[in-house]
Write a structure and sequence with these properties.
By secondary structure, the chain is of the alpha/beta class. It is built from 16 helices and 19 strands. A hairpin with a 2-residue loop joins strand 12 and strand 13.
Length: about 450
């Protein structure tokens, strides 16, 4: 039976293609949604771009027919704009001046006048609660959702291997189908290992014997850069060995690296270290520069109103990058902060020479970035549409590194299942061009206090 989906503005601002995601059902846009799209069309960054994209698509549909009567959609189903039900009575507590309540009026009106089930689709949790109170079914937009965080792809696995194969690992590698893991019932089975998945190999007759490897065309091979120390930094745990392997690979072999993990697991620190190694310590000519972008929840709304040029506007967002640079540029913890001016001068020189550049995320739109080591820090605060735009900006010889923690999201209407970082991780799983690693809480190297907080909080 056909259903009626009433779509809220926040769905379209995050996923402008959402209109075509409801199969052969009726999609309804209340008139107030058009008013809100008109309000947002001049907004900075992705919000404004998405609003304009939806408006252009609605104009295409308008040219095909009457939106009030309904127009066939490219993805199946029908779209119509609803301007009626202005006289529907809600509770006195729900003011007509509030846009959300005008959407609720349409839902209540459609429910009373149509036989089809009416479903409100919105990212707004409170609006979903109000809808349920009024007897209206309400749902989130699930097309872009991936698995819960604990079930998402981690890019790593621990497996057992027969002793005789373990001994030959460094010379010949180990076929992935010769490994096994133990299930909850104690029975062994062969795990499904993805291309480029990192592996901790354990000898089945002596679990204390371990080797680190990566899946290459169905065979687990030893790490190529396990003895490297980029910019003087050496790995301290298995996760950092895997991270180093992915970052040190050339862009033509590993153009996309996705790193997930909690704060303190050295995601940004190690990414900068490898970039500086390749541009300063041992210049390979692979990259022209390091480009760092760091989105945040308020970025689109606030950057246009901040004083100064682009660099002055985004400098507060780059403070965590500078903190990491201070540790990398002067590795001596005892002497690092004795001369603050000298340390600041060294950091300023890195930026002044153009070795590292910082840029607003919304300025990447429409560009083709060539021969660049591109770090997107805090990528969990991007939307799936943003992350698609970032990855498709990669030109020849550019390496993109997405860093973030899906459990630390600051942007409204995003969560661990709908953010761009998790979306990219799940959809790029198994690609030979994508290398992934999720750092564990035990691999936090920030401080004793940070580790204690991980254990207790």
């Amino acid at each position: 039976m056909v259903k009626i989906y009433v779509v809220d503005t926040n769905i379209l601002l995050q996923a402008p293609y959402a209109i075509n995601s409801f199969e052969d059902n009726l999609v309804v846009l209340p008139m107030v949604v058009l008013e809100e799209l008109d309000h947002f069309k001049k907004a900075e960054g992705e919000t404004g771009a998405n609003a304009r994209k939806v408006i252009r698509y609605l104009e295409q549909l308008r040219q095909k027919g009457d939106l009030l009567k309904g127009v066939a959609l490219d993805g199946g189903g029908t779209l119509c704009v609803e301007k009626n039900f202005v006289n529907v009575k809600l509770s006195e507590d729900l003011s007509d001046e509030v846009a959300d309540n005008r959407i609720l009026k349409v839902c209540v009106g459609l429910s009373g006048s149509r036989d089809e089930q009416v479903i409100l689709v919105t990212k707004d949790l409170l609006l979903r609660i109000k809808a349920q109170i009024l007897g209206i079914c309400a749902e989130d937009f699930t097309t872009d959702q991936v698995l819960e965080h604990e079930n998402q792809y981690s890019g790593r696995s621990e497996v057992y291997v027969p002793e005789e194969l373990f001994k030959e690992f460094k010379k010949k590698g180990v076929p992935a189908d010769r490994t096994y893991v133990l299930g909850e019932d104690g029975e062994s089975y062969v795990p499904k290992l993805e291309e480029n998945q990192f592996v901790i190999l354990k000898a089945d007759q002596s679990a204390k014997k371990t080797q680190l490897g990566r899946v290459v065309n169905g065979v687990i091979r030893k790490l190529e850069f396990r003895k490297s120390a980029p910019y003087g930094i050496s790995p301290r745990n298995a996760g950092q060995y895997f991270l180093q392997e992915a970052l040190m690979q050339p862009a033509e072999k590993a153009p996309l690296v996705i790193v997930k993990g909690m704060a303190g697991t050295s995601k940004t620190f190690y990414s900068l270290a490898v970039g500086l190694e390749k541009l300063l310590n041992h210049p390979t000519g692979e990259y022209r520069r390091i480009l760092v972008c760091r989105p945040n929840a308020q970025f689109d709304d606030d950057i246009g109103f901040l004083p100064g040029d682009e660099q002055e506007k985004i400098s507060p967002l780059m403070r965590p990058i500078i903190d990491n640079l201070e540790q990398l540029i002067d590795s001596s913890e005892e002497e690092r902060y004795q001369d603050e001016e000298e340390l600041k001068g060294k950091v300023d020189e890195i930026f002044g020479r153009g070795i590292i550049q910082a840029e607003a995320l919304n300025y990447i739109r429409g560009r083709s970035i060539v021969k660049t080591y591109l770090i997107i820090d805090e990528a969990q605060n991007t939307t799936p549409d943003q992350i698609k735009g970032i990855i498709t900006r990669a030109g020849k010889d550019t390496k993109i590194i997405l860093l973030g923690d899906p459990n630390q999201i600051d942007r409204p209407f995003l969560d661990e299942r709908t953010n761009g970082l998790s979306y990219a991780s799940e959809h790029m799983k198994g690609s030979p061009l994508c290398w992934q690693i999720t750092m564990t809480a035990q691999e936090c190297e920030r401080s004793a206090l940070a580790m204690e907080a991980v254990r207790r909080l």
